[in-house]
Amino acid sequence: MARPKFKRIRTLFMFMLAIAFAWALQRWADSEETIVVDGRQAAVIDGDSFKIGTDEFRIYGIDAPEYRQICNDAANEPWACGKTARGGLDMLMKGKEFNCDLYVRDQFGRAVVSCADEKGLDLGAAMVTQGLAISGDNFDDVIYADEERLAEKAKRGIWQGSFDKPANWRAAHPR
């Protein structure tokens, strides 16, 4: 007779454990904050960051040329890839509203976000696809690896010639 009682207690314990796990999982999933960003209010800083008022945002998963960075085109002529990347992000954001998922704050206090508009346009994917940013940052190196391969193969943007990776350029040109 003791065995059926033990089975019931064990079953009840497993059921309670499953409920606790589901509750914890749901709390973790809900912890990611979503911020609504109006592109008309955004001041683009460079190809992977923008500002709204005093709040600064950095796009998760990409690294774009710095504003003052110069790249070389297919003819080995210099071109302002940093300014072009900034203009590209500005055009993508202009007049649109984005839902941005906050991942973390970086060492500069910026909100690191992944943003998509109502049609599903992902800002990071679009910048990498256009060749105006590379996949990777301090958080995730491969999130947009497929888009990067396509841009490189098509020789779009920075892939048309030669360039220093933005992190290397920043190291060589400290503020």
UniProtKB/TrEMBL annotation:
The keyword Signal applies. InterPro entries: SNase_OB-fold_sf, Staphylococal_nuclease_OB-fold. The lineage of its organism: Bacteria, Pseudomonadati, Pseudomonadota, Alphaproteobacteria, Sphingomonadales. It comes from the Bacteria. Gene3D superfamilies: 2.40.50.90. Pfam families: SNase (PF00565). SMART domains: SNc. Keywords: Signal. Residues 35-161 form the TNase-like domain. Residues 1-24 form the signal peptide. It comes from Parasphingorhabdus halotolerans. This is Thermonuclease family protein.
